[in-house]
Design brief:
The protein is of the alpha+beta class. The protein has a three-stranded antiparallel sheet with strand order 3-4-5. The longest helix has 13 residues. It starts with a strand and ends with a strand.
Length: 146
C-alpha cells in the first residue's frame, strides 16, 4: 500500500510494525550498494577526533573549577582521574614527590584557599591526621574538623 505526500512522492505505508522476512531481505539488498568509501570513513573519523579534548567547541584549556571550589585539570590517563579530570593540587604534590600519592595520603591547603595550588601552600597529610584542630588564617580562630 502506498501513500502520496504533498509533493507527489510515493511512500510505502507499513500497517504492521513487524516486517516480513522477505521485506527485510529486500531492504538489506537495497542498502548493500551504498557502501562508504575509505575517504569518507577517514573524514568521519577525523571529525569525531576533533570533537574530543582541545578540538571540542567547549574546550577551555583543560582547567576548570568544580562545584566544591577545587581546580581540576585534564589528565585522562591518571589513575585518580574522575571523568578524565584530576585535582590540580594532588598533581602538583605528586610532581614534587616524584611519585603517585598513596591511597591514604591527601593534600591540604595551608591557607584554606582551594585555588591556591602553589607548593608552598600545600601540605601532604595522612587521612587520619587531616581532621582535628585547625587554625584558620582568615578568622584567626582554631576549630575542630570531624
Amino acid at each position: 500500500m502506498f501513500q502520496v505526500d504533498l509533493w507527489g512522492n510515493k511512500k510505502e505505508v507499513v500497517l504492521d510494525k513487524r516486517r516480513s522476512p522477505e521485506r527485510r531481505e529486500k531492504i538489506r539488498q537495497s542498502q548493500l550498494g551504498h557502501k562508504m568509501s575509505e575517504k569518507t570513513r577517514e573524514a568521519l573519523r577525523r571529525g569525531r577526533e576533533k570533537q574530543k579534548g582541545s578540538g571540542h567547541w567547549h574546550w577551555r584549556g583543560g582547567r576548570w573549577l568544580d562545584k566544591r571550589g577545587y581546580v581540576r585539570i585534564w589528565m585522562p590517563n591518571h589513575p585518580r582521574a574522575n571523568k578524565n579530570y584530576v585535582l590540580e593540587h594532588a598533581v602538583v604534590m605528586e610532581k614534587y614527590l616524584g611519585r603517585r600519592l598513596k591511597p591514604k595520603e591527601g593534600v591540604h591547603h595551608k591557607n584554606g584557599i582551594k585555588t591556591d595550588n602553589r607548593l608552598e601552600n600545600l601540605a601532604l597529610v595522612v587521612n587520619e591526621t587531616h581532621f582535628g584542630k585547625v587554625y584558620c588564617p582568615k578568622c584567626h580562630r582554631e576549630f575542630l574538623i570531624k
